[in-house]
């Protein structure tokens, strides 16, 4: 087909896996992909994520997602093939059918999301992730050692990344799995819950259903809440037209204030 973006290099890269492409249905583009689409080819149907094959973080994240995939099934849909040529890198996922999770107060999806995080918490840390320490919050805290650990972390918790089907649910977009303190994942859920309309107290009660949250040291969570506030405030200031960053900064401030950690030197 000629509907693929840019030169025909992408179709060429995909052809050994898809055969001739019959149809393309683009989906909402993620921040880290040049193309996300449902593709039907002579050999089947897949959800495809593709980026330009250029050195840098976006290529690294797609490669990392492909490498971690065998270790996070069946919480994540399986990758069926990895295509690459000089112009493109792409992953072809088995298609799963579900809707985005609703994190609003009173939603029936909340226990399902908690269950997804508990399933992730049961996954062992694969050897390849030993060299992927979680460092994104380090420059926003004076105590980064509190964030260290040996759990496999899913750090892109967001309503659009939890798909709920008729019989199961999946965590999708494992573009940057890391190794760190196990409670970071439910802490990220707290931020999303506050952003979705829960009070900080309500969000923490819900997070207590996560097994990884129960062993979190209060001072470590305080440090994370402050670091998250600083991080989102910094990003929101640099990107004033991106409304979701300010929404997350507001949620993080509310959570830090709830914990009495707002303004501490951490």
TrEMBL record:
**In terms of domain of life, where is this protein from?**
Bacteria
Q: Which organism is it from?
A: Actinomadura algeriensis
Name the lineage.
Bacteria, Bacillati, Actinomycetota, Actinomycetes, Streptosporangiales
Its name, as the record gives it, is Protein kinase
């Amino acid at each position: 087909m000629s509907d693929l973006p840019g030169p025909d290099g992408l179709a060429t890269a995909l052809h050994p896996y898809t055969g001739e492409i019959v149809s393309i249905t683009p989906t909402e583009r993620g921040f880290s992909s040049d193309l996300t689409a449902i593709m039907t080819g002579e050999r089947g149907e897949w959800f495809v994520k593709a980026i330009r094959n250029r050195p840098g973080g976006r290529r690294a994240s797609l490669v990392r997602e492909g490498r971690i995939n065998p270790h996070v099934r069946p919480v994540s849909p399986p990758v069926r093939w990895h295509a690459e040529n000089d112009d493109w890198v792409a992953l072809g996922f088995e298609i799963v059918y579900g809707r985005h999770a609703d994190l609003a107060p009173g939603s029936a999806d909340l226990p399902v999301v908690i269950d997804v995080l508990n399933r992730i918490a049961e996954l062992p840390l694969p050897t390849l992730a030993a060299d992927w320490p979680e460092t994104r919050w380090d420059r926003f805290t004076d105590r980064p050692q509190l964030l260290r650990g040996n759990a496999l972390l899913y750090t892109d918790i967001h309503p659009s990344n939890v798909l709920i089907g008729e019989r199961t649910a999946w965590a999708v977009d494992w573009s940057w799995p890391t190794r760190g303190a196990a409670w970071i994942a439910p802490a990220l859920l707290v931020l999303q819950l506050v952003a979705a309309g829960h009070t900080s107290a309500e969000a923490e009660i819900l997070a207590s259903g996560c097994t990884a949250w129960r062993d979190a040291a209060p001072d470590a969570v305080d440090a994370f809440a402050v670091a998250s506030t600083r991080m989102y405030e910094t990003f929101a200031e640099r990107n004033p037209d991106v409304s979701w960053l300010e929404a997350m900064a507001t949620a993080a401030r509310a959570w830090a204030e709830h914990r009495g950690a707002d303004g501490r030197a951490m």
